[in-house]
Specification:
Elements lengths: L16 H26 L18 H76 L1 H9 L20 H12 L4 E2 L8 E2 L1 H10 L9 H4 L4 E3 L9 E6 L2 E10 L2 E7 L3 E6 L7 E4 L2
Parallel strand pairs: 1-2
Antiparallel strand pairs: 3-8, 4-5, 4-8, 5-6, 6-7
Helix pairs in contact: 4-5
Length: 283
């Protein structure tokens, strides 16, 4: 190669003035910033950086009061609903109990009514049977009256008027008459109700005479007398002697006092109302 030959130069091309100015401005700005940062970091009087604390939001007092009121109101509503439920349950239980009690009371009342009706029907049946038996015995009564003696034991004079009761007979009749209007109750022995034999027994007890309780046994007491020779205080019976089903007390004047049945109670009636079968004299 020739020494004169052209060798390309390695020198960088020269930049334009405008570009150099821009680069110088940028470099100057950077250096200024670095200088200020160094000065700030080297300054001993610089205060340490302050920590930043996040503040919690403060609850507004009015809002807190509203929340508390809402909670209390919700609790009150819950208690009120529970109380209403309890009261409803108690009311339902009470209604159920009242319904059951009413049902039992109705059944009990019906049972009592049925029992009373049965007793009344039985008493009426017995009264009807008594009347039928008495009617069948009237023929026997007629014959007994025709054959009756009119001897000294007869308390009637020739006009057929019965002498008034005296002494013990009067006390018996007065007691029996004082019971007129009281109720007939089967098995009753006083003082508010009687059956037929209970009345006779109570009347004779007034004069110290103790009679059996049943009409069958009462008709077996004393001495048999004819119906034409009756005296006040004699015990009348219906049926047969020793097997009578009804008794009463002869009160004189063709009448008797007796506890007839549940329909009539204790009455004083004429012998013709229900003629007896026979009579016994105990006094």
């Amino acid at each position: 190669m020739s020494h004169t030959a052209h060798i390309p130069s390695h020198r960088k091309p020269r930049r334009s003035a405008s570009k150099l100015a821009v680069r110088a401005g940028v470099a100057g700005g950077v250096l200024s910033t670095l200088a200020m940062a160094g000065t700030a970091s080297a300054s001993p009087a610089a205060e340490p950086p302050t920590e930043t604390t996040l503040e919690m939001p403060v609850l507004n007092m009015d809002l807190g009061s509203e929340v508390s009121s809402a909670v209390i109101k919700a609790a009150d509503n819950t208690r009120a609903q529970a109380l209403v439920g309890e009261l409803t349950a108690q009311e339902n239980a009470a209604r159920t109990g009242a319904a059951n009690e009413a049902k039992l009371a109705k059944a009990d009342a019906q049972a009592k009514a049925d029992a009373e009706k049965k007793a009344t029907d039985e008493a009426n049946r017995k009264a009807d049977a008594d009347r039928a038996n008495r009617s069948s015995g009237r023929t026997q009564l007629a014959s007994a009256s025709a054959s009756g003696s009119s001897a000294g034991s007869d308390s009637s004079d020739d006009s057929g008027v019965t002498a008034p009761a005296t002494g013990s007979a009067s006390a018996i009749i007065n007691f029996a008459r004082n019971q007129v209007g009281k109720a007939y109750v089967m098995g009753g022995t006083g003082p508010y109700s009687f059956d037929c034999s209970g009345l006779v027994q109570a009347a004779y007890r007034q004069v110290g005479v103790s009679l059996p309780r049943m009409s069958q046994d009462q008709s077996s007491e004393g001495t048999s007398v004819s119906l034409s020779n009756l005296q006040p205080g004699d015990v009348l019976y219906w049926g047969s002697r020793g097997n009578a089903y009804h008794v009463a007390i002869y009160s004189g004047g063709g009448k008797f006092i007796g506890a007839q049945n549940s329909g009539t109670g204790i009455v004083e009636r004429s012998l013709s109302y229900d003629p007896p079968t026979g009579a016994v004299r105990i006094l």
